[in-house]
Amino acid sequence: MSTIRVATNFNIDLEFEAAPFHRRLAAWLLDVIISIFYCFIVFKIVNLLFHSRSSGASDFEGISALYMFLLIPVITYHLFCEMLLNGQSVGKRIMALKVVNEDGGRPSISQYIIRWLIRTSDYMILLIVLSSPGAIQLGSQFFMQVSAAFGLLLADIILVNSSIKHQRLGDMLAHTMLIKNVQKANIRDTIFLETEQSYIPVFPQVMNLSDNDINTLKGILDAAIKHSDFKLAHRAYEKIKNHLKITTSMSPFDFLETLLKDYNYLSAN
Predict the structure, then answer these.
(1) Helix (H) or strand (E) segment spanning residue 4
(2) pLDDT tens across 89-102, in order?
(3) Bridge partners (DSSP) listed for residue 176
């Protein structure tokens, strides 16, 4: 099992299980199948709509524009899935994988956008799927584009299997990584914890922490609970108490969870 060690802002190292290559490949194939199926349905619908019409230049331009509009969901599939499903696409969720930032927390919107813009393998598949006989007739130009796409895909495969954090090019530029996520995805996978309206914050000093610090804190608490690691929780407990100048007799686990609840309540009110 390949692990990724991450140094957090609290000088506490977290370990994550790197996404195995076969799981990444299976998740990618599932997402590609979903995209191809959607493209197939779109092509069928458009062909039925324009089948009985003449094939003039204006119709060709209209069909092309309609294709581009209907294919926006395919192009933005990964971006919106990962933003809305906490770092997961449908394929990643099925294969229990998740995108996190290099601190182990939830990536920012800008990080999701960067890794989406530098997708190479999906663009390669989309290029092949959208290739019509007319595109193939372009000859060398078309095949040069396909060759370049395959080259970028090969580069991603090499980077995933050789880089320290098993990152593809988009992950390197976005400072994100793909890890194995063995827990079921729910609201507790994020920094958000439900608090009652009558909840009274215990440590208002928590608002001195940044969003990235809170993401890191959530990652530490999850890892400590998952592995029953009291030492990890206690190290975070001491670091944060000293940083925020808090005096408390709470247990480390209770203290860390209370901080998260306080942050959620105070940031929402």
Answers:
(1) strand 3-7
(2) 999 999 999 998 88
(3) 101
Q: What are phi and psi of 12, to 5 degrees?
A: -120, 125
Distance from C-alpha of 63 to C-alpha of 232, rounded to nearest angstrom: 59
Please answer whether residues 66 and 147 qualify as being in contact, where contact means their C-beta atoms are separated by less than 8 angstroms. Answer: no
Tokens of 229: 């690691």
Structure tokens at 95: 């294969």
What is the number of other CB atoms lying within 10 angstroms of the CB of residue 30?
A: 17
Angle of helix 121-129 relative to helix 21-50, nearest 10 degrees, comes to: 30
User: How far, in Å, CA of 125 to CA of 30, rounded?
Assistant: 13
Structure tokens at 267: 């940031």
Which tokens go with 164?
A: 């320290």
Q: Is 250 exposed, middle or buried (0-12, 13-18, 19+ CB in 10 A)?
A: middle
Which phi and psi angles does 109 have, rounded to 5°?
Answer: -60, -40
Compute the radius of gyration of the chain from its Cα atoms. 23
With tokens 């990618």, the residue in question is: 28
Question: Per-residue pLDDT tens for 152-179?
Answer: 778 888 888 888 889 998 899 999 999 9
pTM, 2 dp: 0.66
Report the run of H or E that residue 177 belongs to, with start and end: strand 176-180
Contacts 24+ apart (CB under 8 A), 153-160: 153/120, 153/121, 153/124, 155/120, 156/120, 156/121, 160/21, 160/24
The enclosing H or E element of 44 equals: helix 21-50
The maximal CA–CA distance of the chain, rounded, in angstroms, is 80
Residues sharing a CB contact under 8 Å with residue 38, sequence separation 6 or more, in sequence order: 73, 74
* Residue ranges in 130-251 assigned as alpha helix (H): 133-136, 140-162, 169-174, 211-226, 230-244
